[in-house]
Design goal:
The chain is built from six helices and six strands, in the order βαββββααβααα. It is an alpha/beta fold. The strands form two sheets. Strands 1-2-4-3 form a four-stranded mixed beta sheet. It has a two-stranded antiparallel sheet with strand order 5-6. Strand 1, helix 1 (14-22) and strand 2 form a beta-alpha-beta unit.
């Protein structure tokens, strides 16, 4: 029986959460913090938390109720103060998206998405380092499983890009596990870990 869920096209809402509760799901992983999908007809997650949380506040750390744990995709910025970085990023994105490329080029402000489909190995390593410095309890990697094969999705086209994708995936897993000594866990395993953490999380 499945215990975790990811909505297609990031379209999670409270109606789906209620259904997931009834079906005894434990975890949702649909939220992509600091990202606005509204231009593509999707939701705006630009102000959503990047730290895992129980969807309903009254359910949080109440083990007698069914609680859906949201594990957001790991997204952050090159500056450790994500809150201020997000405000600046969102404002610039709303008035001049091209300026974001200039800021990233000069290492002034850049958003990093923890996915080998979207980022370089260097940037993903930097995000791991920032998450560890901020003591975030989990680093959540995402990619389309179809990209394990050539031309599995439009996000990784052709053999050369596929080879680079696999190199980035292998590289970030090696960095996380062998250099930073992080442990790989399933969503349901992390649910059991998280519900016993101090309420600061």
């Amino acid at each position: 029986m499945p215990l975790s869920y990811k909505s297609g096209r990031y379209g999670i809402d409270m109606n789906q959460i209620k259904i997931l509760r009834r079906l005894d799901y434990k975890v949702d992983i649909s939220i992509t913090p600091f990202i606005n999908h509204s231009m593509d007809g999707g939701p705006n997650f630009s102000n959503m938390p990047y730290i895992p949380y129980f969807v309903s506040e009254q359910d949080a750390h109440n083990k007698t109720q069914k609680s859906i744990l949201e594990i957001p995709l790991s997204v952050g910025f090159t500056r450790i103060n994500f809150k201020n970085s997000a405000k600046i990023f969102n404002f610039i994105e709303s008035i001049s998206p091209k300026l974001l490329g200039v800021l990233a080029k000069f290492n002034i402000l850049e958003r990093i998405i923890f996915s080998p489909e979207k980022e370089s190995l260097k940037k993903m390593k930097k995000l791991i380092d920032i998450y560890l410095k901020k003591k975030i309890p989990i680093i959540h990697l995402q990619f389309h499983s179809q990209n394990i094969i050539v031309d599995g999705t439009p996000y990784v086209k052709g053999e050369k890009n596929h080879k680079r994708f696999l190199q980035r995936l292998d590289g970030i897993l090696d960095y996380a596990i062998n250099e930073k000594h992080l442990k790989s866990v399933s969503c349901s395993e992390f649910y059991d870990i998280f519900k016993n953490l101090p309420k600061a999380f």
